[in-house]
Amino acid sequence: MPIVARNRVGGVPMVRPMDEIVNRIFLGDEADARDGARLEEKDIHAIINCTTRVENYFEQRGFAYLRLMLEETSHITPAIAASVFEFVQEHRPKHGILVHCAEGVQRSPSIVILILLHDRYALFDAFELVEKNCRWPILPAFEMLVSIARLDLNGEHVDEAAVRPYYWERFRLRF
């Protein structure tokens, strides 16, 4: 059954399921994180919770969790990136991983982009892949994208000056 979620970008309710962005990496929201039947159906047993307030609903049922405690203005530090990569490396070979925040619009898409960079995607290619494979509008936090770019995971040397026009072009109609 589809999940009803509130899209913060458009502010209108919409029906959508969580999306598999790449092999075993799913993007979702709080509703997805609390839908145990749907998680089981998708063979998801590991969850990256990018929020400060959403519970880890299935810890008692043996699901593995990584809680990042991110705000919309958080920066992704090397320590945060390392914990995400370690978690993904440990759990992705065995089962799916849900990356979620409250709405599935800002924080969790940013973390999925980070995972894709670790998988050797270029920053803007990763961004476009998430947009393409996600059935709802995303608006990754600008500060997070800049901090991810500064990590220089694949030698691109992308800085804020390159991210700003790209970000503006992608999202100018959503501001």
What distinguishing features does this structure have?
two-stranded antiparallel sheet; 5-stranded mixed β-sheet; single chain; 18% strand; alpha/beta; 7 helices; disordered N terminus; 175 residues; Protein-Tyrosine Phosphatase, Chain A
Structural category: alpha/beta
Uncertain runs with pLDDT below 50, 5 residues or more?
1-9
Number of helices: 7
CATH second-level architecture:
Alpha-Beta Complex
User: Percent of residues in beta strands?
Assistant: 15-25%
Helix content: 25-40%
Order of helices and strands: EEEEHHEEHEHHHH
Overview of this structure, please?
- Helix 3 (78-91) packs across helix 4 (107-118).
- It is built from seven helices and seven strands; from the N terminus they run ββββααββαβαααα.
- It has one domain (21-174): Alpha-Beta Complex (Protein-Tyrosine Phosphatase, Chain A), CATH 3.90.190.
- It has a five-stranded mixed sheet with strand order 3-4-7-5-6.
- The protein starts with a strand and ends with a helix.
- The protein has helices at residues 30-33, 36-41, 78-91, 107-118, 123-133, 142-150, 160-171; strands at 3-6, 13-16, 19-22, 25-28, 44-49, 64-67, 96-100.
- With 175 residues, it is α/β, with parallel strands linked by helices.
- The longest helix is centred in the middle third of the chain and has 14 residues, at 78-91.
